[in-house]
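Narrative of activities, Objective 1.

The group set out to show that a structural description can be obtained from nothing but a protein's sequence at a throughput compatible with the screening campaign. Below is one input-output pair from the validation batch, recorded exactly as produced.
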Amino acid sequence: MEYPRSRILKIYDILNKRYPDPRTLLHFRNPFELLISVILSAQTTDRQVNEVTPGLFEAYPDAASLSRAEQESVENLVRSTGFYRQKAKNIIATARQLEDVHGGAVPAGMDELTRLPGVGRKSANVVLGHIYNRPAVIVDTHFSRVVRRLGLTQAEQPEKIEKEIALLLAPEFHTRFSMVINYHGRDLCLARRPKCGECPLNTLCPWYSEKPAVVLRE
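Output recorded for this entry:
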């Protein structure tokens, strides 16, 4: 098996062809909407977030309006995303901080973004990669699972995974690599019953070679 640095470009090339348009599945029209959507996406699906954000952004289209919102009103709009009380609290507090500190704009730096309530490194990297075209390794559950199975890292902590993968690729590939890996995790490299027999990466995947029983169950 080749070293991770030599395999990762082959993996990227294969997945880039399979997923030619790997955009975030969250619906948004501007940086504010993406930031709020990412905060709401914690512990739920992008699809569920997309169901509530049209009503949320109709009521509160920008940081100024959301910063003045009553929490109960916001809770009712985001209830179906789960943990709705904390999420409502976070997005209102984030909107206030955007207004008070950033003039209503979404900041373009990791430090500034992660100071916002409910925003961790993953959420910040989504904004940096998709809005500001900054190099961003976006480590969610799909990404973490796939890169570990592919033997690109053995790290378990998201921040360590982010740093190790960033060292293997030129910065200009970080965001797109994150997205094609994410798509692959949703499409074939599933948490349960991965479709290894259909996977174009199985000859590059140490997890596949070590887990023949998984393939036989498909």
